[in-house]
Amino acid sequence: MEISMRKISIFIICAFILAAGYFTITKYPKINKSNESNDKLVPIKSGNLSTDYSIDTALSDIDKFNLNTVNVPIAINIDDLSSNSMVIDEYSLAKAIDLIKILKKKEVNIILEPYPWIDNGSMYETDWDPSNIDEFFWNWKTVVLKPLIDEVAKPYDVDILNIGTGFDHMEYAHGYWLDLIDYVRKHYDGLITYRTSWWITASWDQDTFSDYQDKLNNPLFGELDFISIAAYFELTNNDTNSVNNLVKALNKSQIFERDQNIKKETKNFHIRWGKPIFFGELGFPRTTKASIHPWNPYASTTINSTEQANCFEAYRRVFEKEPWFMGFSIFAIGEDGDDKLYYPSNESTKIIRKWYNKSDI
User: Fold this and answer.
1) What is the number of other CB atoms lying within 10 angstroms of the CB of residue 114?
2) Residues 61, 65, 340, 125: is their CA dihedral positive or negative?
3) Domain 5-360, CATH homologous superfamily name and number
C-alpha cells in the first residue's frame, strides 16, 4: 500500500532532547511516529471528553491540564446490547464539528471516536454482543465510520481515528477487523487506532493467561498505527495507598494476590507487534478504593482526591520514560459537575501537568 504524503508528514518526528531520555513538547506538537534516525515518539497528552461536555469547559481544560490532544466523542445511538444496527447522533455530530473547528485553529491534535451510546447510555460498550457479527461489521463500517470520515475526519483534517472502543465480544473476529482497517485506510490518511479493554491475569489461574494470550496475539493490533488500552487495571486491596505501593502494584498487583505484572504485560503488545502503546483511557474516581476497581465510580462514597492523584502519579513514574509508551488520555474532562467523579481533582491536576514536562521530572 502506498503511503500518502500527509501520512509521511505525520510520521516525521519532532525534535526533543535525546541524551536525557525525556520527552519534551511544545505547546501543541503535531502527533508523529518516528523516522529512521530516531525511534523515540512524540507523546500524546490527551483528555477524553465526556459525552455531555461543554465546549467552553473543554477548551478551558486543555490549558488547565496542559494537553496537546483532545479525544472527541460522537455518540452512536444503539438500541440494546444485541443490536446490529446503529445511527450517528446528529446533535453530538454537530457539537463535535463546532469544537473541532476551534481545536484546529488552536492547533490541538484530535482523536475522533465513535462512542457507542447504548440504550440512552445505560449500557456499557464492553457488554455489547451483536446478534449477527456480519451485520454489525457492515453497519459499523458503512453507517458509522465512512460517514464520520467523509463528514468530519477528512474535511477537518482530523489527526487520529479511533475505529472502535472496548468491543470485547467482537475482538475475536480477526478477518472482519482486517477488512475494516483496510477499508478505513482506503478512505482516510490519518493515524488509526483501536482501544482494547484492560484484562486480568492471575498467578493461580492459568485460564486468565490463555485469555490474555488470545488478546495479545490478535492480528488486528498489527495493522494499527498505535495500540490503545483502557487502563482500568485493578491494583490493590487497600482503600488508600502511598504512591510507592501503587508503583509496586503496577509491577505485581496485590488484589486477590493475582501478582499481575501490568507493566510487563502492556509492553508485550509493543514487543509482539512493534507498535507504540497508548493509554486511551486513564482515569480513577476521586474516592477511596480508586485503585481497587478504577472502572467503578461507585465502589466508594468517600471522596479522596489524594488517592486519585496517587494513582496518576504511580502511572507517571512507571510509564512516562518508557520509549515504547506513546502517552495517555485522561478520563474524563469537559464537564466538571459534582457527579463527574472521574474529573481530576486539584491534586491530580498538578500530577497531570507534570507529565512530559522535563523541568518537573
Assistant:
1) 23
2) positive
3) Glycosidases (3.20.20.80)
Residue keyed to cell 476551534: 102
pLDDT at 312: 98
Return the closest-CA partner of residue 261 out of 203, 206, 317, 325. Answer: 203
Three-class DSSP category at 259: coil
d(CA 8, CA 189): 10
Compute the chain's Rg from CA coordinates. 19
Structural domain spans, the chain: 5-360
Query: What's the confidence (pLDDT) of residue 151?
Result: 98
For the record, the C-alpha cell of 81 comes out as 446490547
pLDDT computed for residue 92 by the predictor: 98
Q: How many residues does the structure list for the chain?
A: 361
Q: Are 169 and 129 in contact (CB under 8 A)?
A: yes
Select from 334, 350, 332, 339 the least CA-distant residue to 303.
339
Q: Rounded distance, CA 161 to CA 109, Å?
A: 11
Secondary structure element (H or E) that encloses residue 247, with its range: helix 243-251
Which residue ranges of the chain lie beneath pLDDT 70? Answer: 1-41, 358-361
